[in-house]
């Protein structure tokens, strides 16, 4: 099968997200300029640079109670900061609950039954039970083609790691089993690892 996206795919569901998999989940926490905490998962997310460490996530679409975007981007645009909470398998239901479309003033931490902790380098809350958290300051918001498509790029200013995940000086992802996003309504969990040595190492 071949199709050009501009002509449609003719399938019951869009296969694009199922092809580009697995994708890490950026569970983004923000705080509005008037103090309301927000938490939402984004599957267009990744690390993009080592020095300085940088991450990005993309928001698509907008909410009725925001002028041109979603709560996360609106808050980051106003405050210049956000945190990325790593999603473990144990937090899958809470992550899913936080994806509900709620009013901008409603706290997804409370909605999902999650305890908060306060970031150290930025004025923002994070998921206390997350195995790792990246505190970030905004570098830029890039307007992408399409309606309300935006890429948010941030520099990591602080890193939290659960001590239980550190094994012999290595951050061992099998201790918490990262959740990944697939296509449709599908997710996967990482439990098995293998290593490859690069030819030039």
From TrEMBL:
Ranges for domain Flavin reductase like: 18-173
Pfam families cross-referenced by the UniProt entry: Flavin_Reduct (PF01613)
Signal peptide (UniProt feature, chain positions): none
Domain of life: Bacteria
Record's protein name: Flavin reductase family protein
């Amino acid at each position: 099968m071949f199709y050009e996206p501009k002509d449609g795919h003719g399938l019951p569901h869009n296969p694009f997200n199922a092809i580009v998999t697995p994708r890490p989940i950026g569970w983004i926490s923000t705080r509005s300029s008037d103090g309301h905490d927000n938490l939402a998962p984004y599957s267009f997310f990744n690390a993009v640079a080592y020095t300085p460490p940088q991450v990005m996530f993309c928001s698509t679409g907008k909410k009725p109670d925001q002028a041109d975007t979603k709560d996360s981007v609106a808050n980051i645009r106003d405050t210049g900061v956000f945190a990325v909470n790593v999603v473990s398998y144990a937090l899958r239901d809470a992550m899913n609950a936080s994806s509900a479309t709620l009013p901008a003033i409603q706290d997804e931490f409370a909605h999902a039954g999650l305890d908060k902790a306060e970031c150290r380098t930025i004025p923002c809350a994070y998921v206390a039970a997350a195995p790792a958290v990246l505190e970030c300051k905004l570098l830029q918001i890039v307007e992408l083609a399409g309606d309300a498509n935006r890429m948010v790029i941030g520099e990591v200013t602080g890193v939290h790691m659960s001590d239980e995940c550190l094994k012999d000086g290595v951050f061992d992802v099998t201790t918490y089993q990262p959740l990944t996003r697939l296509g449709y309504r599908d997710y996967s969990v990482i439990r098995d690892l293998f290593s490859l040595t690069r030819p030039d190492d």
